[in-house]
Amino acid sequence: xxxxxxxxxxxxxxxxxxxxxxxxxxxxxxxxxxxxxxxxxxxxxxxxxxxxxxxxxxxxxxxxxxxxxxxxxxxxxxxxxxxxxxxxxxxxxxxxxxxxxxxxxxxxxxxxxxxxxxxxxxxxxxxxxxxxxxxxxxxxxxxxxxxxxxxxxxxxxxxxxxxxxxxxxxxxxxxxxxxxxxxxxxxxxxxxxxxxxxxxxxxxxxxxxxxxxxxxxxxxxxxxxx
Length: 226
Prior knowledge:
protease; about 75% helix
């Protein structure tokens, strides 16, 4: 088990992550970028770039990958990306007659780029800390990264959501070691910024399917190991 935390790597990661976040969200850097898809991707790139730089400079081996501990990469890709894309787009088409494939894909990629940093690097680097401390540090740094410091009830609720997400997505990361899986869970909130009965049903179906799959998979792996 990892016992030594590389604080220099964490500082390096976070300076890059929050620096790029500031440039893409609080300046006119992306003013001339016409593609909303590219803008969304660039706004989430900071944690991923910071993690890659930290991995490279400090010779840290990533613990998470796209495939994770699945036997192949097709399974998590179908379960965590193709399934939500298909479900959400199908419901959208039959209820509204629209087809927002680019937007849904951008949300998943956005979540993936963030998760390369938060779960793929930071959570793993803080692994030796007590679980609650790990979760709180990740949640605080994740909250600050959003650069929204207004003392409002909405922000307090948002911080609470990030604490729960840091715990929950962290559990998914430990179980699957798959960036595809954690990015899908991460993207749930971004899929549905405003809720209605249809979206609630989709959300419940996605979460129930993923959680049940994880439980069954965990039991099978436990049975094999025994």
